[in-house]
Amino acid sequence: MVYNKMALVYDRFMESAPYDQWTLFTKEILEKFRPDAKNVIDLGCGTGNLTLRLAMLGYEMTGVDFASDMLSIAQQRSGEQNTPIQWIQQDLTALDVGKSYDVAISYCDVINYITSEEKVQQVFSNVYESLANDGIFIFDAHAMSYVENDLKDNIYSEMYEDMGYVWFCEAASYPGEMYHDMTFFVKDKEQYDRFDEQHHQRTFPTNTYLTWLKNVGFDIIGIYADFDTTCITAEQADHAQRIFIICEK
Asked: For the whole model, what pTM was predicted?
């Protein structure tokens, strides 16, 4: 699933997403651990909402996404705001950006869309290779208990005057794995056009992520949850909603 159809309505459905919280969290973490950071690569940048916010804070930004339609919107937006950002279309499992970055970030469940153990480890290895020495990698993921106890087997819906959606979260084969079956209705003149999307996500226990990160050479700096900048244990993170892991090359 590469979001190309959904790109047209993505920002409307993500209006309540906590972009400001991601921005503030990133700023506070970098001020603490890498205050001299200059260039940041945003992995899975979508339409560039967070990428642009960080650019406005003074970081030299690069946005990477696999969905060309998402990147087209991001590029148009950065042009309208006269904000220079490099946009790259790549699959994170084959990430090769040709330069080293001070910081890599990956938010909004991007890592959860990489559903095989081998591919998650490949992404971690690719990120490691894209960072300068002492570079920082920050990513988030759904916590295991949140997927199992709150998301799975639930139905969500929202209707606006000109669009709406129905979203069913279905349990899959493994703990932490789920399918999101989503139906969208978008008004076109006097009728509504329908399109369907299926998103496949999987999360892993926090300690599993830590092991994979260490295996590719990262040092773990801290574990956080739900945008709180108080460091916690892996066991505590597994009972949050959104975990954040910060590591260093």
From this structure: 0.93
